[in-house]
Write a structure and sequence with these properties.
By secondary structure, chain A is an alpha+beta fold. Helices cover about 55% and strands about 15% of the residues of chain A. In chain B, helix 1 crosses helix 5 and helix 7 crosses helix 9. Classes of the chains: A alpha+beta (about 450), B alpha/beta (about 220).
Chain lengths: ~450, ~220
């Protein structure tokens, strides 16, 4: 019971019942004023006026005049049927069309019963009557029928009561049902949430199919759960691959060190430098993973300053020119002058360096690399195109994953983090990077917003 | 040089101390932050190697305290925090150089030797000379044995840095830091290619080779007697 009263939907239903009852009473009140109170006042005023007139006639003109007047009055049927009773000082009913009245005179208003039979049918009358006793002991009751008003009054009374009762019953019953229905829907959400908390991230909130508010809430929650599951899955994949990628050099390092124990002095030298190289490689992987994680966490966003992109890209080309020439690769750049944007210069340089480095690594001798940068609307578009083997379509989407390497390129040195770094830097700069088929070769298209 | 080494990890400390001693320096090894602070304030060293994370006191606190007394002894900070932000924090606290862990011992020695003789290198020079090689920093010209040699702007900066540190080993990452103005992960073989092009222009047509490669470490330019 306490749970029922505590539930929001039940409290809402109760509020609703109260509001409904309130408005019902307001309507009834207005109706009472218009259909009962005002006509009743009119009737009273009329009866009072008539009574006064008739009393005066009796006092001034005597009994005969009164009786004549009463007779005449009884015949006239206007809106409300007139009633009267005149009792002489001796106690005799001299003239009356009222059926009954109190033995003793009554102060104030009387509502009497005056049922009549008209051609076999009973007709109800309820005269509103004023009772007056003259100084000589005579008594005069004057009234007018207000049965119509009484009927309306009765209907209003019973109607309001019935309305209130129905509202209460329907409201309580409806509220109870509603709170149960809503409670069940909420319970499905919370039971899903509990399962998710218990570690089953694949759980989803079931939808009703009606597209109502709860379905919309469930859809939003499910989208959120999907995002979280994806993120957790990505973290798990990363930690799995980090563990794997770090274990390999660690194993080699350990093997080198173990072999050293029983190696000949000449062998020992080679093993030693292999071990140092392996340690350095471990450090590089570790540092690269940490850097990507830091960039993804957005911790670099504070070092954004206006950067001269033209110079930066020119420096990158300049940095790689000897390496390209050594491998017989022609590198050219066509950079629009005066390109500036707000960015992290170090990260942008490193990302560009990674892209050029990749191109040089994967291109055969005689290859061509072309770096262009130009302003387009509110973007700066950097394009790096080569005529090398490119990235097969089925691998293009995955090359930015950590440690992912196109299977056919395993003989090229690398740890598979270069493009992950580029993707992280692109995301930090709210920009998009696309790997496209330059037929033949690869075209990397990086569109950076200027502001 | 007399070097104060403040490092709490005993294996790293012994390794570094031994390396520096083998390179011909006198090393005072201190394990704790407080003691390090006292020694640095009381004695005159040519350079200080300071671990960023020490058990009692934060290495940067020590550095700030030393600097607050007006001491300008060159300080190299060692740190497992390799982040760019951390590097900037360290340099801002008064560090002269910052080396993330893990590091190659040769890198540390090269850097500390360059730091230790920084004094005279800072004074304005317009001419640099090593043997018969002359560099005019104002006219930006290079001549060897009276013959004019054309090099690119980048090669000029590499040569200038080598010659300012003539006789001292300059590592690849030091070159990256001073010749390219971006802080980034060095593709070390690429630096080698830049140096080898410079060397071709400087040394190829002459009997004595001025630029030497120090295996596994970097380069040095020196006048051979």
């Amino acid at each position: 019971m306490k749970a029922l009263f505590g539930s929001l939907s039940f409290r809402l239903a109760l509020t609703y019942v109260a509001l409904f009852a309130g408005s019902l009473l307001a309507v009834a009140g207005t109706f009472y004023l218009i259909a009962i109170r005002l006509p009743l006042q009119e009737a009273r005023a009329e009866v009072e006026r008539e009574a006064k007139t008739l009393q005066n006639i009796y006092i001034v003109d005597g009994r005969a005049a009164l009786l004549t007047r009463l007779k005449a009055r009884a015949k006239v049927h206007r809106q409300r049927k007139p009633f009267h009773a005149f009792i002489s000082p001796e106690g005799l009913t001299v003239s009356a069309n009222l059926r009954s009245w109190p033995r003793q005179p009554v102060e104030g208003w009387l509502r009497l019963e005056a049922d009549d039979y008209l051609e076999g049918d009973e007709v109800d009358y309820e005269p509103l009557t004023l009772d007056h006793r003259f100084d000589d002991g005579a008594r005069l009751l004057v009234g007018r029928d207000i049965e119509d008003i009484s009927e309306v009054e009765e209907v209003l009374q019973s109607g309001s009561l019935a309305g209130l009762a129905v509202a209460l019953v329907v409201g309580l019953l409806g509220g109870g049902l509603m709170s149960r229905a809503i409670g069940r829907r909420i319970e499905t959400v919370s039971s899903t949430a509990r399962q998710v908390m218990a570690g089953d991230l694949s759980q989803r909130v079931p939808t009703h199919g009606s597209g109502d508010d709860f379905d919309r809430l469930a859809e939003t929650l499910n989208l959120m759960l999907a995002r979280i599951e994806e993120a957790v899955e990505a973290v798990r994949r990363v930690s799995d691959s980090v563990a794997h990628e770090l274990r390999t050099p660690l194993t080699r390092l350990r093997a080198d060190l173990e072999d050293m124990v029983k190696a000949t002095p000449e062998e020992r030298e080679a093993r030693l430098s292999a071990a140092i190289e392996e340690a350095a490689r471990l450090d590089r992987i570790f540092e690269a993973v940490l850097r990507i994680a830091r960039i993804e966490a957005g911790r670099h966003a504070t070092s954004f300053i206006p950067v001269d992109l033209t110079t930066l890209l020119d420096d990158a080309i300049d940095y790689y020119r000897p390496a390209a020439e050594e491998r017989g690769i022609a590198m050219s750049g066509s950079l629009e002058s005066g390109l500036t944007l707000v960015a992290d210069a170090d990260l942008l340089f490193q990302a560009t360096a990674n892209l050029i480095d990749n191109a040089i690594k994967y291109l055969p001798a005689g290859g061509i690399i072309n770096l262009t940068a130009a302003k387009s609307a509110n973007m700066v578009v950097i394009e790096l195109a080569d005529d090398g083997p490119g990235i097969p379509a089925e691998h293009r989407a995955r090359v930015t994953e950590r440690f992912y390497r196109v299977p056919t390129t395993e003989d090229v040195a690398g740890i598979g983090l270069g493009l992950s770094f580029v993707a992280a830097v692109a995301a930090l700069h709210c920009s998009t990077i696309h790997f496209e088929d330059a037929a033949p070769g690869l075209r990397v298209r990086w569109a950076l917003p200027i502001a | 040089m007399q070097i104060l080494l403040i490092e709490d990890d005993p294996r790293v400390a012994d390794h570094v101390a031994r390396g520096l001693r083998e390179a011909g320096h006198i090393v005072d090894l201190v394990r704790g932050g407080r003691e390090g602070l006292l020694r640095a304030a009381a004695e005159q060293f040519d350079a200080v190697v300071l671990d960023r994370m020490l058990p009692e006191v934060d290495g940067l606190k020590i550095l700030q305290t030393i600097r607050a007394t007006g001491d300008t002894t060159p300080v190299l900070i060692l740190s497992a925090l390799g982040d760019v932000d951390e590097r900037i924090k360290g340099l801002r606290a008064g560090g002269d150089d910052y080396l993330p862990k893990p590091f190659a011992l040769s890198e540390l020695i090269a850097r500390i030797e360059v730091l230790g003789r920084r004094g005279p290198a800072i004074t304005e020079t317009t001419q640099l000379t090593t043997a018969d090689l002359h560099v005019d920093l104002l006219g930006r010209t290079v001549t060897r044995a009276g013959r004019r040699i054309d090099i690119t702007a980048r090669e000029f900066r590499i040569l200038e840095y080598l010659m300012r540190n003539a006789g001292r080993v300059v590592t690849r990452s030091m070159l990256l830091q001073h010749v390219w103005d971006y802080a980034f992960d060095p593709q070390t073989n690429i630096i080698d290619q830049h140096v080898s092009r410079l060397r071709q222009k400087i040394d190829r047509d002459f009997p004595t080779q001025l630029i030497e490669t120090v295996r596994g470490t970097g380069y040095v330019i020196r006048d051979r007697p």
